[in-house]
Amino acid sequence: MKIVEALKANGVEVIITEKADVLIKNFENAHISYALSADEKTGVIFFGGFEEKMKAGLAEHHVAILKEEDVKENILLAYEHARRKSDVLFASSSASKTADIEGKTVFGMHGPRKFTVVLVVRK
């Protein structure tokens, strides 16, 4: 899938599985959320809810559970799919990172230091 390549290019850890519930146990200290949809080409993932945005933004490690059927072929279709599920949306495609004037990259300044996507696929 193209989304795996896009996410990995952004430094995201991607785990592909048929059963996310087994893997969730490995992320005890992470904030786990369920994605509403995602754009296959860019790796942008949509989530819903104001409270969810606060928790995900403050987490050190954000783990997103994304179902294969919620991956759409472009950003507009992904957005529309997510809007059918929630009125409040936010998007993410990588861990939070910024760079200072000298070009030194810092992770976790404005959000999670680490971002993992668990892509749940069908057999």
Automatic annotation (TrEMBL):
SUPFAM superfamilies annotated for this entry? Answer: NagB/RpiA/CoA transferase-like
According to the entry, every stretch annotated as the LUD domain falls at 77-120
InterPro entries listed in its UniProt record = FTHF_cligase-like_sf (IPR024185), LUD_dom (IPR003741), NagB/RpiA_transferase-like (IPR037171)
Output this protein's name: LUD domain-containing protein
